[in-house]
Each structure stands twice: as C-alpha cells, then as structure tokens.
Amino acid sequence: MLVSPDNNVVVSIGFGREGDLNGAIDELRRLVKSSFKVLGMSAPREAKINSLDAMTVTGRVENDEGAILSLALYAIGADGANLAITVFTGEDSGRRAARTVEEIVNSVNLAATG
To answer: Across-strand partners of 60?
Structure first.
C-alpha cells in the first residue's frame, strides 16, 4: 500500500483475477462492496493506461469511521497477468487518481510480471 505524504491518497497494487479484464474489474468491485458502504459506483468502462488495455470504475464510498472517499479501480492487462490497482482519495479528484495510476504503471516493468 502506498500513502501520499498528505495522507489524502491511498493506493493498493497487486495482481488481479486471471482471465479477461471484465472478470478482473468485477472482482475488484465485489471486494469494495464487501468492505465499504457504497454511495455510488460507475459501470466498468474500457480504457488505455500507457497503451495497456484496462477497465476502470469510479465511485464514492463511506468507510467504518464515516469518512466519504472517492475511489478509482483499475484492472490493467499486462503480458500474461492482470494488475489490480485501487485508489482512494479524501477529495473528489479523479484526475489525481488517474495521474497516480499512470505514474505507477510508468514506474513498473509490467512485461516482467508474466
């Protein structure tokens, strides 16, 4: 888990469910729904993250302490494996989440994960 210096962005990175990206993003959605009170969540949509195929979901959740968080979920296809990234922000900042994910993907050699 990565936490920004101002504690306003929390990023979790790991391997996602194997198989197609639809299944991988659905698994991330299920995990969030089982851990948070979901206030709203978009339908999955296709995206490209640094030329890699991806599925994304955005939304808002409430944690156990009652804090409202914005979230962005990413399932990214990388040479033989799916990468799962969750981004929680304390502010309504989808752009900040997207920049964070692009920076992560740029810094990791995803071709070596398979």
So the answer is: 40, 70
3-state DSSP assignment of residue 45:
strand
- Rounded alpha-carbon distances, angstroms, from residue 50 to 82, 107, 109, 112: 14, 11, 12, 16
pTM: 0.81
- Burial tier of 51 (Cβ tally within 10 Å: 0-12, 13-18, 19+): exposed
CA distance 95 to 79: 26
Q: What is the pLDDT of residues 37-78, one digit of tens each?
A: 999 999 999 998 888 899 999 999 998 989 899 889 999 997
Q: Measure Cα distances from 27 to 52, 70, 85, 91, 96 in Å.
A: 19, 18, 12, 25, 23
